[in-house]
Automatic annotation (TrEMBL):
It comes from Micromonospora zingiberis. This is Non-heme iron oxygenase ferredoxin subunit. GO terms for molecular function: 2 iron, 2 sulfur cluster binding; metal ion binding; monooxygenase activity; oxidoreductase activity, acting on paired donors, with incorporation or reduction of molecular oxygen. Coiled coil: none annotated. The lineage of its organism: Bacteria, Bacillati, Actinomycetota, Actinomycetes, Micromonosporales. The keyword Repeat does not apply.
């Protein structure tokens, strides 16, 4: 587990980008109050998802509007058809943590690798 940031660093309904062992991660505070982390690149083209809009527990790609379910990584609409990696988030004592492998890279929970 490594600490990414404090809970206050990610206001509800927003996303930030974090470098975790060389992997860009979009850390999202969903409108449901939960924190989520996904690989910070759309599966359709090389666009940072952290720059998109948070709606409910989805994150929208700003370029063509595909929306990704933050719980599964699956796109809920075209043009993206492939899921993005999802990383489990742990919130402890006001800080946000991700599980990492021996090289410090985040471990996806949905079986999708980049
Ligand atoms: S680049 Fe994200 S939907 Fe096209």
């Amino acid at each position: 587990m490594i600490r990414i940031c404090a809970v206050e660093d990610v206001p509800k309904g927003s996303a930030i980008s974090a470098d975790v062992g060389g992997t860009q991660v979009a850390l999202v505070h969903g409108e449901d109050g939960q924190f989520y982390a996904v690989y910070d690149e759309c599966s359709h083209a090389a666009v940072a998802l952290s720059e998109g809009e948070v709606e409910g527990c989805t994150l929208e790609c700003w370029l063509h509007g595909s929306r990704f379910d933050l719980r599964t990584g699956a796109p809920t609409g075209l043009p993206a058809t492939e899921p993005v990696p999802v990383y489990p988030v742990e919130v402890r004592d006001g800080d946000i943590y991700l599980s990492v492998d021996g090289d410090g890279r985040p471990l996806p929970s949905n079986g999708v690798t980049r």
